[in-house]
Write a structure and sequence with these properties.
seven-stranded parallel beta sheet, seven-stranded mixed beta sheet, single chain, Rossmann fold, 2 domains, globular, binds cobalamin, alpha/beta, 18 strands, TIM Barrel
Length: 424
C-alpha cells in the first residue's frame, strides 16, 4: 500500500521535538514492504500547501497522522492544539478519499473523544508498530476491522484489546529518513531516543500508563549504544532520552551508562529522573557517559502532598539526588507543581522554600494539574465535584485546591519575579 505518514505537531514549546513515535511506525511500515512517504509539518513553512503537494504527488491509499500534543498542560491561558489538526484533516479530505488513521501519545490518552473531535476515520491507541500493520493488512483486503489491537472507530469504540510488545528488540529502530540535515545543524535540537517503554510508578496525575502501559519494557543497552553510534556518525551531537524515568531500574541505567562511556561517542545528553531512587555512583556514571542536564520532577517539597501524588520519595531523597548531581556538574531543572490534593498555604510555602533551598540551575513552577482520564487525580476531582464523572477531559480541565487558586498564582508569580532562573 502507499502510506503517507504525517506528523501534525507544530509546537516549539520547551523545545522542537522530532516525531520519534511516527518514525518508529514508519520503519515498521517500510519493513513490511509498504511504500511510505513522510511529512513533518513542524518543518513546513506553509503546512497546508505541503500537505496538498504530498497528497497530490504521492497519491496515498492510507494516511496516518501522529497527534503528539492535545494542549500545553498549562492552566493559565491554556493552548488547545486540536483545532489546527482538525483543519489539516479537513484539508486531507478535500484532496483524497484515503482513510485517515490517528495515533500518537496525546491521541492515545483520548482515543475515542479525540477521534470524533478530529473527524478522522479511525485511530490506534498506544504503540503503533504492530497494530498499524495489522490494520493495513485488513484495509488492503477489505476485511473486517474487528480484533485489530487498540483500534478505535468513531461511534463504535474499541475493536480489539491493545497489545504491548514485551521485547522491544522485536521492533525496528526509528526511520532516520525523517531526520533533516537542518535539524542536525540546529544547536537547540536534541535528538529523542527511547530505551524503555512503560512506567510502574503510578503517579496520581500521570497519563503515561495509559499511553505506554505499567510494565517496563526495554531495549538492551548494547542495542541502544549501537543505535547511538550510527546516529553519531550521521551527525547527531545532542540526545534527549525520552524515557519517563531514566534511572529506573537503576541496574539498567548503570549498564547503559557504562556502555555509552565505553563507546566514546562524543555526544551529550539529557534525561528525565525519578528522584529519590538515586545515588552518587549513578550520577558519576551518567556524567562520565555524557549527561549534561536532567529534569527532576519532584513536584512538591511537602511529604503529605508527595504522598497524595503517590510519589515514592521524600524531600530528603530529592535533596540528596540534587546534591550528587550537582557534585558531578550536571545541570538540574526542577519541576514544582502547586495546587494538588491537600495543598494548603503552609504546604505551598514549604514547597517553594524547599525548591529555593535546592539551588538548582532552573526551576519550572506550575499552578494547577492537568486532569487526565483513568488517573487517581481524575477520581479525586469527581469526588470533589470539580468534574462530572462522564467528562472525557479532552477539553483541558485542571485540578487546583478549592479556594487556593488565586493565592497560589500570585504567590508563585512573586517568587518567580525574584528568581530569574525560575520559569512558569
Ligand atoms: C519526552 C517527552 C517530552 C520531552 C520531549 C523531548 C524530545 N526532544 O522529544 C519534552 C520535555 C521536551 C516535552 C515537552 C512537551 N511535552 Co511532552 N512528553 C514526553 C513523553 C514523556 C515521551 C514522548 C515520546 O517521545 N515517546 C516515545 C515515542 C516512541 O512514543 P509515541 O510518540 O507515543 O509513539 C508511539 C505511539 O504513540 C504510536 N504512534 C505515534 N504516532 C503515530 C501515528 C500513527 C498513524 C499510529 C498508528 C501510531 C502512532 O506508535 C509510536 C511507537 O510505538 C510523553 C509522555 C509519554 N510517556 O508518552 C510526554 C507528552 C507527549 N508531552 C506532553 C506535553 C503536553 C508536552 C508539552 C506541550 C509540555 C509543555 N507545556 O512544555 C511540550 C511540547 C513539546 C513540543 N514541542 O511538542 C503530553 C501530551 C498530552 C497533552 N496534554 O497534550 C504528554 C503525553 C505527557 C502528558 N503529561 O500527558 N515532552
Amino acid at each position: 500500500m502507499r502510506v503517507l505518514l504525517i506528523s501534525a505537531n507544530r509546537e516549539e514549546i520547551n523545545m522542537r521535538t522530532w516525531p520519534l513515535g511516527l518514525a518508529c511506525v514508519a520503519a515498521a511500515t517500510r519493513k513490511a514492504g509498504h511504500d511510505v512517504e513522510l511529512l513533518d509539518l513542524m518543518l513546513a513553512a506553509n503546512p497546508r500547501s505541503e500537505l496538498a503537494r504530498s497528497i497530490e504527488s504521492f497519491g496515498p491509499d492510507v494516511i496516518g497522522i501522529s497527534v503528539r500534543n492535545i494542549d500545553d498542560q498549562t492552566m493559565r491561558d491554556t493552548k488547545f492544539f486540536l483545532d489546527q489538526v482538525r483543519a489539516f484533516i479537513a484539508d486531507c479530505r478535500d484532496l483524497t478519499g484515503a482513510p485517515i488513521v490517528l495515533g500518537g501519545a496525546g491521541y492515545s490518552i483520548f482515543p475515542q473523544s479525540s477521534l470524533e473531535y478530529l473527524a478522522a476515520d479511525m485511530g490506534i491507541q498506544g504503540e503503533g508498530e504492530a497494530a498499524f500493520l495489522a490494520l493495513l493488512d485488513r484495509l488492503a483486503h477489505n476485511a473486517s476491522l474487528e480484533g485489530v489491537p487498540g483500534l478505535y472507530l468513531p461511534g463504535v469504540g474499541l475493536q480489539g484489546a491493545r497489545k504491548f510488545e514485551k521485547n522491544l528488540a522485536e521492533l525496528p529502530l526509528p526511520d532516520t529518513r525523517f531526520l533533516s540535515a537542518s535539524l542536525l545543524d540546529d544547536p537547540e535540537f536534541w535528538f529523542p531516543v527511547q530505551t524503555r517503554r512503560g512506567c510502574p510508578m503510578r503517579c496520581s496525575y500521570c497519563s503515561t500508563a495509559t499511553i505506554e502501559g505499567c510494565a517496563f519494557r526495554k531495549r538492551s543497552p548494547a542495542t541502544v549504544t549501537r543505535w547511538l553510534t550510527a546516529w553519531a556518525q550521521l551527525g547527531v551531537k545532542r540526545v534527549y532520552f525520552v524515557d519517563n524515568t531514566f534511572n529506573l531500574p537503576p541496574s539498567y541505567a548503570r549498564e547503559l551508562c557504562s556502555e555509552l562511556e565505553a563507546a566514546r561517542l562524543g555526544i551529550t545528553w539529557r534525561c528525565i529522573l525519578y528522584p529519590g531512587k538515586f545515588d552518587e555512583k549513578l550520577a558519576k556514571a551518567m556524567a562520565a557517559a555524557g549527561c549534561t542536564e536532567v529534569s527532576v520532577g519532584f513536584e512538591s517539597g511537602a511529604q503529605p502532598i508527595l504522598h497524595g501524588l503517590n510519589k515514592k520519595f521524600s524531600p530528603e531523597g530529592v535533596r540528596e539526588t540534587c546534591r550528587v548531581l550537582g557534585n558531578q556538574g550536571i545541570r538540574r531543572m526542577g519541576f514544582l507543581m502547586l495546587g494538588g490534593p491537600g495543598e494548603t498555604r503552609e504546604t505551598a510555602l514549604e514547597s517553594l522554600a524547599f525548591a529555593d533551598s535546592l539551588g538548582l540551575e532552573t526551576m519550572k513552577v506550575t499552578v494547577g494539574i492537568r486532569i487526565y482520564p483513568y488517573t487517581a487525580l481524575a477520581a479525586t476531582a469527581v469526588d470533589h465535584g470539580m468534574i462530572e464523572d462522564d467528562d472525557d477531559l479532552l477539553l483541558p480541565r485542571f485540578y487546583v485546591t478549592p479556594g487556593l487558586g488565586e493565592w497560589l498564582r500570585e504567590t508563585a508569580d512573586r517568587w518567580m519575579a525574584e528568581r530569574p532562573n525560575w520559569i512558569s
